[in-house]
Structures are given as structure tokens and as C-alpha cells.
């Protein structure tokens, strides 16, 4: 059998449910851990980032208004689609992170399972963190979590798929929309994840994936007046501080970078970090003292 | 017809204000390291009430060190013991509540009926509520054995001096933290009386430290390396500055900032109840309330009827001596705040809105502003966008529920909102769409220690009150 010339994939951004190139026309070379060329990835511009904010804002009303059950099914569908492409992602993660096939497989499996974990949370978190409050007066009073809005994320630099999924899944599970700047040196699994999301019933704009340099793109996102929160998981200390300062301008919620074992039980911290508590009061009225004693 | 009222002043004899007060550090009152002092005046008369110490950076350092030293033992106490200290404090506040109400009215300028019937009962209730959490933290949903953060630096505003102190100190102590608290420059006295209550309760020294001072003291406190957490209630501008100061550190932050609450009245609302709610929403505490309903959104079909009723009701508001039990609207807290309110109200007129205020005689001395409303207000007007923090209501109209929601959410703030309608499904639909942390439906300005309070967007982050309020003081 003669060697067949393979078809390379053009890696593209995932914005508003579509797969654009960077508007800047720029790309950068992505190599494996040994320096072998893998692909050219889009080198996103600040304009790409702003476009992604517009797409994320446009998607927010529909996604935050979807039922929790519906969001859970869609997140589970992502796991299903990812499972179907397991071999592709094992190969991509192995190349991206310089892992053996078995170690890469463990990363991909954990990433799939993480979607399942958060799929199950969408319709449970409200009861866990919300509830009725026994106020001292004739009022019905209930607190419920509500999504913060548009969340911008610097993806973890080392864990190209599991780390990425661990930061975007909790954001959208809570009803937010997200734009994420993928690991700079290992963006290919993230860009391929866009293809999974596009076939998982995730509405366009709910997840937006950019590749490029966080240090170039993210300052304008941290300062963007239509972004409600930022997760700095993959930012180094110096960049993170500058971004946190910029974020104060419209009081974005900020998750600071911290050492995280992405393989460990994720808990609910990244879910609740992007939820607001809304408390609603209403008078109850009174039937008087003559009500039922039985 | 207007009824005449005989004066009915609450007695000042119940409170004994010393001519001067020091800083409360490590369980003792002491002078500022550099001996600086400033005066606190009664806003309704401009009478000097007392002289208090202006804490320096050195004093901040001493207070933080005292709190750090106290943290070790306080955090190691069984929760049930911490609880008993807090229950003691709650009870002593109840015992001394009339004294504290009069003191608060003197120092702040708000009516005695508010300090007596709202501020003080809520202060005691807040301590009583969080006292009960101290030995139940493992059941609060933050893991089996959540830890305190350490030393909390807390900076509070002048609009509810003692209540904001309670919102800050009660959950912090229940969770096992120690605190350094700075009351507002214009209202330092009730926090200093609280220091005395801590002594009466036998609270270990250093657990609560009170530093009086101005913005420089606050800046020194939030910038101090020895604290683990900052909790701030105040203006959005200062809140942003604090967020910048804390960037790149490990210090935790919660902020409760400004608001421009929309009070939405639909055409099926019970008009008389809605009018009471609107008046309460914007004239309670002279409108110096972060969650005030300062934008009235009224459905166009009932606008004339509602405004007629509202103006009638505003004409009956009694403005004057805050110590008088019949007073509805007291003094503005400071000359500075009065100037800010005046300037913003003037901008309303300059930008083309129509100003109306009932005929009312304002006292000669002190800081006063008549209850005021503006009609013909557009969303672009400063009085529709900026927090006035005074008794000034901006009236806008809408036709459909969707328009009401869009206008309500058209703000950098997201603290509170009100909905007036008899239709339950509409109330719930609108409440769901409002981007605000507290939504009052067919009521307004209700507070309770069990009910989480805090904002969306630039109104800040974190919640005070309820189980949620513990999170701000636990390492979770």
C-alpha cells in the first residue's frame, strides 16, 4: 500500500458558533514538545477578542434563560461528542503536552468525565447554594444563584484539554457565556474542542475559543466594560496583577491564578465564582390567628 | 388639611457623650500616636458632639498587630464559646438600644423613629443571628471544618453606622476572625460605644479594634500587609480603588457599593401601597441608602394618577428635628454630602428635567434637603444614571414589561429593584430578568439578618447576611 498524503486541518478560531480565521490574518507556528511543527494557529487580535465579547453577550440571554435541565443535557452532549472523538484528542494532547499515549488518554478521559460532572450540576447548584430565608416578618424571601454574565478566561498553559475544560465547563454550567484564550503553546486541542462544541447543541456564542498570546489580547478583555468576570487560571503572576488592576474598572469578578491539580475533584468553587445571589422578597399576608391548629 | 403637631422630642439624657474619645486598640482606649484629633458634629444642628482621634499609619499597624495576636486564641476557641460572646453582645445592644438610637440620631442626623425601630433592632438581630452560626460552621455548606481567614480590615459608611458595623463584625467574629474596623469620619461615635459594649461583654482584647479617622486611615488599613481580608461598604469609586490596591495579593475582598435602584410600578399595582413603597424607597434615611429606589419607573397609563398621589403623600412628610418622634425626614449627614446632592439636583434642572418639591420649611442650622422629585427625566440624564445618595427621585415611564426591565437594567449598578404589581406571574418574570442582588416585590427596603444582601455589576461583590454572608469570612 502506497503512502497516502494526509489532509492537514486548518485550525481556526471558534466565535459565535462559527470558525473564523483571525481578522488580523496572522498565524503562529505551533510545535510539539520536541520542536516539530504541528500546525499554524490563528494569532488572535484584540479585535477578535472584542468580536468574541459581542458574540458571548448576544448568546447570554438565551443561554441564561434556558432551563437548567436543558443546559445539563447540552453539557452531557458535549461529553458524548468528545467521547466519539477520543482517539483524535488523545493524539492531539499527546503531541501538545509531550505525553505518552496512555497518559494523554487519561487526560482526555478525565476531560470527558468533567463535562459529565458539570452536566449534572446545572440543575442542582440552585438548591445547594440557594434557598428560602426565615426573615422575621410576614414575607416570603428566597435567594437563588444567577449567572454573572460574560466571563473571559485565560486557559491553563500546561493542561491543554483537561485544564481548559475544567475552566470553561463550570462557567457555562452556571448559565454564563465564556470566551477563552487557549494555552499559548498548546492551542490545538482547544481549537479542536470548538468542533466538538459546534456539534453538541451548544448555542453559538456560548463558548468562544481564541488562540494567541494572552499577554496581547487579555488586557483589553480585562478592561472591557461588557465583560463581567475573568478567570486568570493560566496567567503568570505579573500579567495576572495587571489584569486584576484593569478589571477593577468595572468591578469584574476575578478568579486569581492558583496552583490547581486538574485531575483532582473540582468541587464547586469555579461554579459559584461566577454566580450572583439574587434575593427576592414578597409579602405573605396573613390569615390571622384562626388558622388550622390541626 | 394639614394637622399641627406638638414637638415630641426623644430625651437626650439617655446618652452620655464624652468630650473626647481615643482609638480602641487591644482592648484599651488610647490617643492617636501623633495626637491628632477631629471633631464630630450633629448634622441637624452643627453642634460639636465630641472630639475623636485620627488614627495614623502607626496606629493602624498597632491595631493590626493586636488583631493578629488575638487571632490565635480567638480562632482556636470552641465555636460554642465564640457564640456566647456574640450572644452577650446582642443582648447588651438590646439593653442599651435606646441610648444607642439617640446617639446614632445625634451623630448621623437620621430620624429617631428609624434608629429606634429599624437600625437598632436590626443590629441586635444581626449579632444574635451570627452568634448561632459560630458553632455550626461545619453545617453551613463550606466543608466539614471551614477555617477563618485571619485579620479582617473593615471600612464602613456613615449612612447606617452601627448597622454596617454589625454586618461586618458579627459574621467575621462568628467565623473565628479578628477585626480592625474603621467607622466613617462623620459618624464615629456609635462604633466607639460598641467598643465599650465589647468590654462589658468581656470580649478578649484585640478581637475587635476600632480606629477612627478619615480616608487616609482607611487607605492605610486596606493597604496593610498584615491583614487577610478587606470588607468595604461605601462608594463605587473607593471600592474600585480598593480592588486595584488588592490586585496581585492574596487578600480576599468583598465590596458593597453604590446603586441606582429601579422601582417599577405596573398599571395594576395597588396605588396607595405603591406610593408608600416609593416614599419609603427614596426618603428612608433621607435617601442616603445604597439600595434606595432612586429611579421610579411607572407604566405610562397610570403615570398621572400615581404622581398626583405621590406628590400628595410627599406633602405630608415632616422634615426637621431628627430627635422628634414625628419626624419622617431628618438631616443630610454632612455639608459635603449636601453639596453633592445639591449639585446633582441642579444638573437635573440644567439638563431639562422638571423639579418638584413640596412646600416645606427647613431648619436654619444644619444640613437639609427637601424631598424632591424630577419628571421628564431621560435615561441619559445624570440624575437617572448617577447615585445621588439623597432624597431625590427621578421619574421615568415605560409601556411594556420588557421596556421596564430594559430600563431598570440600563445601569452600571445592580444592587436593588422594586416591582409593584398584583399579578404574580408578572412579578416573578420581571424579578427573574432584573440584574439586581435584592428585589423587593410589593414592598421595599426590607432587611433581615437571614437575608443575603449585595449587588450585581458595579454595586460590588460578596453577600452580607444569611448563610451566604459567612463565605466572606471563611477560607473557602
Question: What is the arithmetic mean of pLDDT of chain A?
Answer: 96
Supply the CATH architecture of the largest domain in chain B: 3-Layer(aba) Sandwich
Question: How does the overall form of chain B come out from the CA principal axes?
Answer: globular
> Structural class, judged by helices and strands of chain A?
alpha/beta
Radius of gyration of chain A: 21 Å
State the fourth-level CATH superfamily of chain A. Answer: Aldehyde Dehydrogenase, Chain A, domain 1
DSSP helix fraction of chain B = 25-40%
Record keyword descriptors for this entry.
heterodimer; A: 294 residues; alpha/beta; Aldehyde Dehydrogenase, Chain A, domain 1; 5-stranded parallel β-sheet; 3-stranded antiparallel β-sheet; 10 strands; elongated; B: 476 residues; Aldehyde Dehydrogenase, Chain A, domain 2; 2 domains; 7-stranded mixed β-sheet; 6-stranded mixed β-sheet; 14 helices; 20 strands; 38% helix; 17% strand
Provide an overview of this structure.
Chain A is an alpha/beta fold. Chain A has a single domain (27-283), classed as Aldehyde Dehydrogenase, Chain A, domain 1. Chain A has helices at residues 46-65, 68-84, 86-97, 101-121, 125-129, 162-173, 188-198, 214-222, 237-247, 269-272, and strands at residues 27-31, 37-42, 131-132, 139-147, 150-154, 177-181, 207-210, 229-231, 253-255, 275-283. A 5-stranded parallel sheet of chain A has the order 7-6-5-8-9, with helices on both faces. By secondary structure, chain B is of the alpha/beta class. Chain B has 2 domains: 12-257 and 459-473, Aldehyde Dehydrogenase, Chain A, domain 1 (3-Layer(aba) Sandwich), CATH 3.40.605; 262-441, 3-Layer(aba) Sandwich (Aldehyde Dehydrogenase, Chain A, domain 2), CATH 3.40.309. Chain B has helices at 57-76, 79-95, 97-108, 112-133, 161-174, 189-200, 215-222, 236-246, 271-283, 303-314, 335-350, 382-385, 401-409, 424-433, and strands spanning 20-21, 23-25, 28-30, 37-41, 48-53, 151-155, 178-182, 208-210, 229-233, 252-256, 262-265, 295-299, 354-356, 372-375, 392-398, 413-414, 416-420, 438-441, 456-457, 460-461. In chain B, the strands form 5 sheets. A 7-stranded mixed sheet of chain B has the order 13-14-15-12-11-17-18, with helices on both faces. In chain B, β14 (372-375), α12 (382-385) and β15 form a beta-alpha-beta unit. The model of chain B has no long low-confidence stretch (mean pLDDT 97). Chain B: Keywords: Oxidoreductase. Chain B: Belongs to the aldehyde dehydrogenase family. Chain B: This is Aldehyde dehydrogenase. Chain B: Residues 31-475 form the Aldehyde dehydrogenase domain.
Amino acid at each position: 500500500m502506497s503512502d497516502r498524503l494526509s489532509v492537514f486541518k486548518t485550525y481556526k478560531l471558534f466565535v459565535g458558533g462559527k470558525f473564523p480565521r483571525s481578522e488580523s490574518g496572522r498565524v503562529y507556528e505551533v510545535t510539539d514538545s520536541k520542536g516539530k511543527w504541528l500546525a499554524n494557529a490563528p494569532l488572535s487580535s484584540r479585535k477578535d477578542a472584542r468580536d468574541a465579547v459581542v458574540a458571548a453577550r448576544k448568546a447570554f440571554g438565551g443561554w441564561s434563560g434556558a432551563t437548567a435541565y436543558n443546559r445539563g443535557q447540552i453539557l452531557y452532549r458535549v461529553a458524548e461528542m468528545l467521547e466519539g472523538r477520543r482517539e483524535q484528542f488523545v493524539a492531539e494532547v499527546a503531541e501538545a503536552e509531550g505525553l505518552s499515549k496512555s497518559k494523554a488518554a487519561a487526560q482526555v478521559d478525565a476531560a470527558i468525565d468533567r463535562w459529565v460532572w458539570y452536566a449534572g450540576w446545572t440543575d442542582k447548584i440552585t438548591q445547594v447554594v440557594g434557598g428560602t430565608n426565615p426573615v422575621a416578618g410576614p414575607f416570603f424571601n428566597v435567594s437563588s444563584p444567577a449567572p454573572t454574565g460574560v466571563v473571559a478566561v485565560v486557559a491553563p498553559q500546561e493542561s491543554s484539554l483537561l485544564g481548559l475544560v475544567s475552566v470553561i465547563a463550570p462557567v457555562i454550567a452556571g448559565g454564563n457565556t465564556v470566551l477563552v484564550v487557549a494555552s499559548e503553546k498548546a492551542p490545538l486541542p482547544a481549537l479542536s474542542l470548538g468542533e466538538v462544541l459546534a456539534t453538541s447543541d451548544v448555542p453559538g456564542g456560548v463558548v468562544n475559543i481564541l488562540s494567541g498570546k494572552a499577554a496581547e489580547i487579555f488586557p483589553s478583555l480585562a478592561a472591557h466594560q461588557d465583560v463581567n468576570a475573568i478567570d486568570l487560571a493560566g496567567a503568570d503572576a505579573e500579567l495576572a496583577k495587571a489584569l486584576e488592576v484593569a478589571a477593577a474598572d468595572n468591578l469584574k469578578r476575578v478568579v486569581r491564578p492558583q496552583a490547581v491539580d486538574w485531575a483532582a475533584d473540582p468541587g464547586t468553587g469555579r461554579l459559584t465564582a461566577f454566580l450572583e445571589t439574587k434575593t427576592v422578597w414578597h409579602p405573605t399576608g396573613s390569615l390571622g390567628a384562626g388558622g388550622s391548629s390541626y | 388639611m394639614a394637622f399641627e403637631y406638638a414637638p415630641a422630642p426623644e430625651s437626650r439624657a439617655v446618652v452620655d457623650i464624652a468630650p473626647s474619645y481615643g482609638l480602641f486598640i487591644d482592648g484599651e482606649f488610647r490617643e492617636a500616636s501623633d495626637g491628632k484629633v477631629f471633631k464630630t458634629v450633629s448634622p441637624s444642628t452643627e453642634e460639636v458632639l465630641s472630639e475623636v482621634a485620627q488614627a495614623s499609619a502607626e496606629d493602624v499597624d498597632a491595631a493590626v498587630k493586636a488583631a493578629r495576636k488575638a487571632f490565635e486564641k480567638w480562632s482556636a476557641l470552641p465555636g460554642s464559646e465564640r457564640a456566647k460572646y456574640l450572644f452577650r453582645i446582642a443582648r447588651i445592644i438590646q439593653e442599651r438600644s435606646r441610648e444607642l438610637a439617640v446617639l446614632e440620631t445625634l451623630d448621623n442626623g437620621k430620624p429617631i423613629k428609624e434608629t429606634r425601630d429599624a437600625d437598632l433592632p436590626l443590629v441586635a438581630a444581626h449579632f444574635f443571628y451570627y452568634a448561632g452560626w459560630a458553632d455550626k460552621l461545619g453545617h453551613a455548606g463550606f466543608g466539614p471544618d471551614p477555617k477563618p481567614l485571619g485579620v479582617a480590615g473593615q471600612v464602613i459608611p456613615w449612612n447606617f453606622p452601627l448597622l454596617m458595623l454589625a454586618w461586618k463584625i458579627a459574621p467575621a467574629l462568628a467565623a473565628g476572625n479578628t477585626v480592625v474596623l474603621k467607622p466613617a469620619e462623620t459618624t464615629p461615635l456609635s462604633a466607639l460605644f460598641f467598643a465599650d459594649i465589647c468590654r462589658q461583654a468581656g470580649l478578649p482584647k484585640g478581637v475587635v479594634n476600632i480606629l477612627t479617622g478619615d480616608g487616609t486611615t482607611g487607605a492605610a488599613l486596606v493597604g496593610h500587609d498584615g491583614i487577610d481580608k478587606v470588607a468595604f461598604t461605601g462608594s463605587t469609586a473607593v471600592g474600585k480603588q480598593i480592588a486595584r490596591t488588592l490586585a496581585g495579593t492574596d487578600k480576599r475582598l468583598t465590596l458593597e457599593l453604590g446603586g441606582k435602584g429601579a422601582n417599577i410600578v405596573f398599571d395594576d399595582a395597588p396605588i396607595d401601597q405603591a406610593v408608600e413603597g416609593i416614599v419609603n424607597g427614596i426618603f428612608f434615611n433621607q435617601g442616603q441608602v445604597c439600595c434606595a429606589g432612586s429611579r421610579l419607573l411607572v407604566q405610562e397609563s397610570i403615570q398621572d394618577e400615581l404622581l398626583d398621589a405621590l406628590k400628595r403623600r410627599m406633602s405630608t412628610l415632616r422634615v426637621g428635628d431628627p430627635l422628634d418622634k414625628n419626624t419622617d425626614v431628618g438631616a443630610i449627614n454632612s455639608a459635603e454630602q449636601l453639596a453633592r446632592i445639591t449639585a446633582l439636583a441642579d444638573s437635573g434642572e440644567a439638563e431639562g428635567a422638571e423639579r418638584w418639591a413640596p412646600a416645606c420649611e427647613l431648619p436654619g442650622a444644619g444640613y437639609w434637603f427637601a424631598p424632591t422629585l424630577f419628571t421628564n427625566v431621560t435615561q441619559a440624564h445624570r440624575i437617572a444614571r448617577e447615585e445621588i445618595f439623597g432624597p431625590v427621585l427621578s421619574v421615568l415611564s415605560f409601556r411594556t414589561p420588557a421596556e421596564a426591565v430594559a430600563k431598570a437594567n440600563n445601569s452600571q449598578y445592580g444592587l436593588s429593584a422594586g416591582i409593584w404589581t398584583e399579578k404574580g406571574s408578572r412579578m416573578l418574570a420581571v424579578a427573574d430578568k432584573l440584574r439586581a442582588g435584592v428585589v423587593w416585590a410589593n414592598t421595599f427596603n426590607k432587611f433581615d439578618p437571614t437575608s443575603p444582601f449585595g449587588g450585581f455589576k458595579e454595586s460590588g461583590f460578596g453577600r452580607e447576611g444569611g448563610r451566604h454572608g459567612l463565605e466572606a469570612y471563611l477560607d473557602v
